[in-house]
Amino acid sequence: MAGIAAWGAYAPRLRLSRKAVTQANAWVAPNLKAKGKGERSMANWDEDALTMAVEAARDALGPDDDRSHIDSLYFASTTAPFADRLNAGIVSAALTLEKSIAASDVTGSQRCGLTALGQALSAGGASLVAVGEHRKARAASAQELDFGDGAAAFVISDEPGAAELLGRGSVTDDFVDHFRGDDGGFDYYWEERWIRDEGIVKLVPPAIQRALEVADLSPDQVDYFCFPSTFSGMAAALAKAVGIRPEAVRDNLAAVMGEAGCAHGPIMLAHALEEAKAGETILVAQFGQGAEALMFRATGAGQRAARGVTGSLAEREVETNYLKFLTFNGLIEWDKGMRAEKDNKTALTTLYRNEDMILGLVGGRCRETGVVQFPRTRISVAPNNPAVDTQEPYRFAERRANVLSYSADYLTFSMVPPNHYGMIVFEGGGRIMMDITDVAPGDVETGLPVRMVFRIKEVDEKRGFVRYFWKAAPDRAAIASQSAQAAE
Amino acid sequence: MPQGIRDKVAILGMGCSKFGERWDAGPDDLMVEAYLEAMQDAGIEPTQLDAAWFSTHIDEIGTGKGGTPLSIALRLPNIAVTRVENFCASGSEAFRGAVYAVAAGAADIALAVGVEKLKDTGYGGLPVANPGTLNPQVMPNGSAPGNFAQLASAYRAKHGVSKDDLKRAIAHVSVKSHANGAKNPKAHLRKPITAEQALAAPIIAEPLGLFDCCGVSDGAAAAIVTTPEIARSLGKHDLVTVKALQLSVSNGYESQYNGWDGSHVHTARIAAGKAYREAGIERPREQISMMEVHDCFSITELVTMEDLFISPEGQGWRDVLDGFYDADGGVPCQIDGGLKCFGHPIGASGLRMLYEMYLQLQGRAGERQLVNPVFGMTHNLGGAPASNVCSVAIIGQEGA
Predict the structure, then answer these.
(1) Which CATH number is B143-213+239-397's, of 3.30.230.10, 3.40.50.1000, 3.40.47.10, 3.30.420.40?
(2) Residues of chain B with CATH 3.40.47.10
(3) Which residues of A touch B208 (CB under 8 A)?
(4) How many degrees, rounded to 5, is the angle at CA B256 between CA B253 and CA B258?
């Protein structure tokens, strides 16, 4: 029976204080005051559904450069950056998966993350499922407070791995609780009571019951019940309706990260996997034009995520500046200055010719001298041995690195001034002058340990194109271990 | 080792426009201003020019591409005009082309003109450059101050200099240049400043504040060169000759190979070493009378003092604070105000540096005149510390 071999998760480091939002909007939306508790995850300006999915996938795959065992990839999101360009293709290039893999984008509904997972488990073989979501909501809306940004990923294998699939149940019905047209705008919602009583309560149970039936389990045998909903008490009400024990109902993380759309069922599943003991059962379901339900049994084996949901939630920085959130999400027309007027048109020929360099952060290693460099070139950079045509592809994305020199630049255009960038030197050789992200003034100094993160480099607003590249971000685990050593 | 350029070519005349925010002047006006002064100084007619080199960096907002803008502005007699561009060292490239043409015997008299019209961008600072199609997909969204500011972080780390000490040293670099620039009627910025002002200025790119950055100016400069024999035949004496012209260009070592420590400019050391050999200079700290270096930012000037082997490595900041590079110091640096205060019209800057050295060597520097200078050195850097072109030139009294 197929199963989950490994999992990973990602929540952006920034957590927007809901109180900051409700206070700013109290004049226009006093009804939202009660929602002003806790925090929601907030993507940095250079993060989207795709970059977060890549981060989660790296967490699931681990630092090993060899990813040739993956033979198919599913990228699920309702907020993928491209409507017609295979988003999974970008994920694949970023992860340096083989060119021979099958890849698809799964989208269209809040349950699409679990649908992708179900399809991968049914298809057999070794696959990667990466789910990311970054939903936009209007200022002063309830969604703005309820939503969060995040991602989860799973490595699927024909072996049970960390969790064995026991059963799957689906319901498909064109129940339109909300929709979003193809204008890239905002969700349009119908009345909550109708969604709850006529939608969730009636359409989800058959999917759950079907999954239990296939698994040959009774509802009271469910140890972990994961069901995301922004309606308070919804998962508990559903559990009661189908006979799942109340103590099995999992925290939906609303207080600490909000709901990450189609990624939220997968995130809750990953979170449960982090706690489940061998033999315990996990039921995950998500609503959306019907429902998808998947039933697993934890094996206690498999590879544990280095970061996972627990690690992602632990690495946090509270953001109380609501205007920054609005700016990052394109909800404010702000004065970027003349320096932002440069044309960000991307030469697609150049992008494709340098695909592994730009999207995969692949450089070269001289097979004669072992000298590592970025980018890969015909003539080696080694000063004493400029060998010709000796470079083999060399991946930098998972290498540890640190800052040699840097500046915090207030002159150049940046979405988060000052723009930090510097010369990053890699363990094992090589260096790249690159942007440094997820930092504030004072965070960077020569010697700072950094890790590579896949991010938005530039947005071409004129043509609707998003340019991706890698950036350096503080390696907070390495920094913590350095401080611990220094203290000893 | 090639035999080099030493004493093969003499400077017949030079000219330099007033630098600054020249709202009144387009690039043509600036070129004409510098050219007419140089021609008058040389005492020749346009028909005596055999070839010209023309430097300008940012064609998008300046003259446009090609050699025609110079030929048309100056109404040159249909002679060869070569446009050169090598980042901020473009002006030195124009000079190098003209000097080499004379040394090769291809031209008896050659002209070099550099110009930049920067104040047509609509904002302060340098315009955003066109980086091609690959660079913007991978390189940081940076600026000149952000690139050069990185020298400071690496210099502090390598030499164990505190943030405060280095900030004080680079503040003095600017205080000294403002004091010098105040005495130069052609300079863009002519107000002296205090160290306190420099230290309190708003940050442009950590740790560089406003006064750590050079002026963004309009301007042009010109040189006319010939052989010493022709110069004498035209009635010139006490000639200023070219002693060394070196250019070192990064090959990716600094930016792609883990060797360079980021605290200095690799090419500057190579160009300086070669220039001293070409000029026959063995003890630069004693022999160089004065210099104009590429102080695009105060930290660049500070590390350059070591890269040119004037200050020992790691000690440049102390020499700066000790006043060694002040107008009355051991090796006066930026006696005309430098890029900092004379200004930095990119394509003209290399020629502007030579203009000041030439005036000083001829005793024509007015209020700024130094006592009996023998060798004047210029250092003209283009690009960024991790990837650049660096020109080092030495001119001096003929026979010295």
Answers:
(1) 3.40.47.10
(2) 10-119+218-233, 143-213+239-397
(3) 407
(4) 80
- d(CA B241, CA B376) in angstroms, rounded, equals 11
Counting Cα atoms < 13 Å in the Cβ hemisphere of A356 gives: 16
Q: What's the pLDDT tens digit per position in B224-261?
A: 999 999 999 999 999 999 999 999 999 999 999 999 99
Q: Does B129 touch chain A (CB under 8 A)?
A: no
Question: Do the chains contact at B205 and A431, CB–CB below 8 Å?
Answer: no
DSSP string, A86-110: -HHHHHHHHTT--TT-EEEEE-SST
pLDDT lower than 50: segments of chain B: none
A383/B256 CB distance under 8 A: no
Q: Which CATH number fits domain A400-487: 2.20.70, 1.10.8, 2.40.10, 2.40.50?
A: 2.40.50
Residues of B noted as catalytic: 88, 344
pLDDT digits (tens, 9 = 90+) for A451-476: 999 999 999 999 999 999 999 999 99
Domain B10-119+218-233 top-level CATH class = alpha beta
Residues of chain B with Cβ-Cβ distance to A413 below 8 Å are 141
Any chain B CB within 8 A of the CB of A423?
Answer: yes
Q: Which candidate, A288, A293, A294, places its Cα nearest to that of A173?
A: A288
CB contact under 8 A, A409 and B122: no
Interface size A-B, in CB pairs within 8 Å, comes to 140
Q: Which of A318, A293, A317, A409 has the alpha carbon at shortest distance from B142?
A: A409
- Do A383 and B259 touch, CB atoms closer than 8 A? yes
B140 vs A contacts (CB less than 8 Å) = 419, 421, 433-435
Tens of pLDDT along A282-309?
999 999 999 999 999 999 988 889 999 9
